[in-house]
Every structure is written in structure tokens, then in C-alpha cells.
Design goal:
two-stranded antiparallel sheet
């Protein structure tokens, strides 16, 4: 059955001399895979340019129940993502976010609200007005909400410690070692107030930003899915001052 699908490309990997496999997240079906042309031909080059990570497309797909790898027709950018493709900082950011989503978005069912969040974030990343230094931090914080594992920062009071394992703020240290210091907890609680609109006001050194990122990834790993071995993580740690 032919269906129109809205997609967020996540990764293209080689399959044979003639074809590659695209992993994507769709609004209608959740995680999906497509066979796409490889090689140096004009169509293959056009598809690769269209299917860069975090660059939304719309296509027609031949959806067959039980078939794991689909075929797509007439993919079109929706919208065009010139900055994400051409700017190295934004392209690196897109690569990192797509790698996180590859691990996190395992379900096969479509979740329109989650898809819309990811797509809107991708479109925002393409805006020339966006300062991208804290973009991944806001994205991960908002992703926790959609995954249903965001801590209740309203319960925080100065001096408390954040228990990473139980996802609660405590007045004293838990028996295990997975908790943040008082200063780290205050910084973590402040993340609850970070938005796309005010993220440029959060001034971090490179080391501080790396610590925030590591803490978010550790929390995701504890409560959703393991994120060890992210290939783009070292790049993200080093990119922004």
C-alpha cells in the first residue's frame, strides 16, 4: 500500500555496491528503514544530499505489512535545510542528535507529538538566528519530557542533592554513589528553566558544558537506554566554548 510518510533521516549505512540502508523516524510508523541507491550516480548523490541526518523529508513509501525494509518514491525536503548541510557546527550537532535518537527511538509505533518535537528542533537548528552552543542540551532536556523520565525540578530546594538512580531530589546523600553534589544539583535544577528562547543566556565553559552533557547522557542511560559508545560524543565535547 502506498502511503505518504514524513521522515527524519537518522543514518545511512552501506548495504551493497548498489544500495544503502536508511534508518529514519517517521510520524506515521515510528522507526522505519529504506533501501536507497548507493554509488556515484546522479540519483544516488541526490538522495544522499536529501537524506542527511536531521533533515526532514516527505516521501511516498510502499508499505507492506511484515516487510522490514521499504522502498521510497519521490523524497522531497520539508523544508530545505541548507544551513544544517553546509555549516560544520550545525552538521556536527545534527550528527550527534541523530546518533542519540538512533539509540533512544526503538519503538515501531508512530508518536506524532514526539516526531513533531524532533522535526521542529531540526527546523530550528537550520535557523540563522539560533546560537547552537547549548542546542543539544535543550534538546536532551526536552527529550526527557517526551520519554516520560524528566525529573520534577519543582521539588528542588537549595542545598538538596539529586539522586540520579531514583530521579529525585534529596536532603541527604543516598546509599549508592549515583548522585550529584549540591552545586551540580543546583545547575541541574536550572536546566529545567532552559528553553530554546533563553538558552543563549546560559554561559558555560567548554568543561562545564561537557559535564552537563555527560550528566544528561548518564541519566538517559540509567532510565531509558544505554548510550555508551556514541561516536560523535567527543566531537560535541570539543566543539563549543
Amino acid at each position: 500500500m502506498l502511503r505518504t510518510l514524513n521522515l527524519i533521516p537518522l543514518r545511512v549505512i552501506p548495504y551493497s555496491d548498489r544500495n544503502s540502508i536508511l534508518s529514519a523516524y517517521s510520524r506515521e510508523l515510528g522507526r522505519v528503514s529504506f533501501v536507497v541507491p548507493a554509488g556515484a550516480g546522479r540519483e544516488a548523490r541526490r538522495r544522499r544530499a536529501l537524506l542527511m541526518p536531521m533533515c526532514p523529508v516527505v516521501c511516498v513509501a510502499d508499505v507492506v505489512p511484515g516487510k522490514e525494509v521499504l522502498h521510497m518514491r519521490d523524497p522531497q525536503p520539508c523544508p530545505p535545510m541548507q544551513l544544517v548541510v553546509s555549516d560544520p557546527l550545525r552538521a556536527s550537532m545534527a550528527m550527534f542528535l541523530s546518533e542519540v535518537l538512533l539509540h533512544v527511538l526503538r519503538q515501531s509505533e508512530g508518536e506524532p507529538a514526539l516526531f513533531d518535537f524532533v522535526r521542529n528542533a531540526a527546523v530550528r537548528l537550520n535557523s540563522p538566528d539560533v546560537v547552537v552552543g547549548n542546542f543539544h542540551i535543550v534538546f536532551l532536556c526536552r527529550l526527557l519530557v517526551f520519554l516520560g523520565i524528566a525529573p520534577d525540578v519543582a521539588s528542588y530546594r537549595p542545598g538538596m542533592l539529586f539522586d540520579m538512580a531514583d530521579a529525585v531530589f534529596r536532603v541527604s546523600a543516598p546509599m549508592h554513589g549515583r548522585y550529584l553534589t549540591a552545586d551540580e544539583t543546583a545547575a541541574a535544577a536550572a536546566l529545567g528553566r532552559m528553553t530554546w528562547e533563553n538558552m543563549h543566556l546560559y554561559k558555560y565553559t567548554r568543561a562545564q558544558r561537557a559535564r552537563v552533557l555527560d550528566g544528561l547522557l548518564e541519566y538517559l542511560s540509567l532510565h531509558h537506554v544505554g548510550l555508551s559508545g556514541l561516536k560523535s560524543l567527543d566531537v560535541m565535547r570539543d566543539l563549543f566554548d
